[in-house]
Design goal:
Blueprint lengths: L1 E6 L3 E9 L6 E2 L2 E5 L4 E7 L1 E6 L2 E6 L5 E2 L4 E10 L9 E3 L2 E2 L4
Protein backbone atom coordinates (compact mmCIF):
# COMPACT_ATOMS: atom_id res chain seq x y z
CA UNK A 1 0.00 0.00 0.00
CA UNK A 2 1.18 3.47 -0.80
CA UNK A 3 0.19 6.88 0.60
CA UNK A 4 1.41 9.78 -1.52
CA UNK A 5 1.02 13.16 0.19
CA UNK A 6 0.87 16.59 -1.43
CA UNK A 7 1.33 19.01 1.47
CA UNK A 8 0.37 22.69 1.22
CA UNK A 9 0.72 23.66 4.88
CA UNK A 10 -2.87 24.14 6.02
CA UNK A 11 -4.31 21.80 3.34
CA UNK A 12 -3.35 18.57 1.61
CA UNK A 13 -4.21 15.96 -0.98
CA UNK A 14 -3.34 12.30 -0.54
CA UNK A 15 -3.43 9.53 -3.12
CA UNK A 16 -3.76 6.08 -1.59
CA UNK A 17 -3.12 2.88 -3.54
CA UNK A 18 -4.01 -0.50 -2.06
CA UNK A 19 -2.16 -3.38 -3.72
CA UNK A 20 -3.32 -6.97 -3.46
CA UNK A 21 -0.19 -9.09 -3.32
CA UNK A 22 -2.21 -12.26 -2.76
CA UNK A 23 -3.39 -14.89 -5.21
CA UNK A 24 -7.13 -14.35 -4.67
CA UNK A 25 -9.19 -11.20 -5.20
CA UNK A 26 -10.28 -9.11 -2.22
CA UNK A 27 -14.04 -8.63 -2.43
CA UNK A 28 -14.91 -5.63 -0.27
CA UNK A 29 -12.39 -3.72 1.78
CA UNK A 30 -12.03 -1.41 4.75
CA UNK A 31 -8.87 0.61 5.42
CA UNK A 32 -8.28 2.00 8.93
CA UNK A 33 -5.65 4.56 9.93
CA UNK A 34 -5.08 7.62 12.11
CA UNK A 35 -3.86 11.02 10.97
CA UNK A 36 -0.79 12.22 12.89
CA UNK A 37 -1.35 15.98 12.81
CA UNK A 38 -4.93 17.12 13.23
CA UNK A 39 -5.95 16.64 9.60
CA UNK A 40 -9.64 16.82 8.68
CA UNK A 41 -11.06 15.31 5.49
CA UNK A 42 -13.01 17.65 3.20
CA UNK A 43 -13.64 15.27 0.29
CA UNK A 44 -12.87 11.75 -0.92
CA UNK A 45 -12.98 10.25 -4.41
CA UNK A 46 -13.22 6.57 -5.45
CA UNK A 47 -14.05 5.57 -1.84
CA UNK A 48 -16.12 6.57 1.19
CA UNK A 49 -14.62 7.83 4.44
CA UNK A 50 -15.73 8.55 7.97
CA UNK A 51 -13.61 10.34 10.52
CA UNK A 52 -13.76 10.46 14.33
CA UNK A 53 -11.01 12.68 15.66
CA UNK A 54 -7.77 11.51 14.04
CA UNK A 55 -9.19 8.02 13.28
CA UNK A 56 -10.29 7.43 9.67
CA UNK A 57 -12.21 4.50 8.17
CA UNK A 58 -12.28 4.26 4.37
CA UNK A 59 -14.48 1.77 2.52
CA UNK A 60 -14.92 0.93 -1.14
CA UNK A 61 -17.35 2.34 -3.66
CA UNK A 62 -19.17 -0.14 -5.92
CA UNK A 63 -16.57 0.36 -8.67
CA UNK A 64 -13.59 -0.11 -6.31
CA UNK A 65 -15.07 -3.03 -4.33
CA UNK A 66 -12.87 -5.76 -5.77
CA UNK A 67 -9.08 -5.66 -5.66
CA UNK A 68 -7.95 -8.30 -8.17
CA UNK A 69 -5.15 -10.71 -7.31
CA UNK A 70 -1.93 -8.91 -8.19
CA UNK A 71 -3.89 -5.68 -8.85
CA UNK A 72 -4.70 -2.48 -7.03
CA UNK A 73 -7.31 0.19 -6.36
CA UNK A 74 -6.71 3.86 -5.65
CA UNK A 75 -8.61 6.65 -3.96
CA UNK A 76 -7.88 10.22 -2.99
CA UNK A 77 -8.41 12.53 -0.04
CA UNK A 78 -8.49 16.30 0.25
CA UNK A 79 -8.39 18.01 3.60
CA UNK A 80 -7.17 20.68 5.96
CA UNK A 81 -4.78 20.64 8.88
CA UNK A 82 -4.05 22.56 12.03
CA UNK A 83 -0.99 20.59 13.07
CA UNK A 84 0.90 19.53 9.97
CA UNK A 85 0.28 17.01 7.23
CA UNK A 86 2.25 13.91 8.09
CA UNK A 87 1.74 10.43 6.69
CA UNK A 88 -0.19 8.02 8.96
CA UNK A 89 2.13 5.66 10.84
CA UNK A 90 0.20 2.45 10.11
CA UNK A 91 -2.73 1.09 8.15
CA UNK A 92 -4.95 -1.97 8.50
CA UNK A 93 -6.90 -3.51 5.63
CA UNK A 94 -9.87 -5.66 6.68
CA UNK A 95 -8.26 -5.94 10.14
CA UNK A 96 -4.77 -7.01 8.98
CA UNK A 97 -1.69 -4.76 9.11
CA UNK A 98 -0.58 -3.41 5.73
CA UNK A 99 2.94 -3.15 4.44
CA UNK A 100 3.52 0.43 3.26
CA UNK A 101 6.01 1.78 0.80
Amino acid sequence: MAYRLSDWGSSFNAEVTIRNTGTAPVDGWRLDFAFPGGQRINSVWNARATQDGDRVIVTHESWTRTIPAGGSVSFGLNGTSTGGNGVPASFTLNGAACTTR
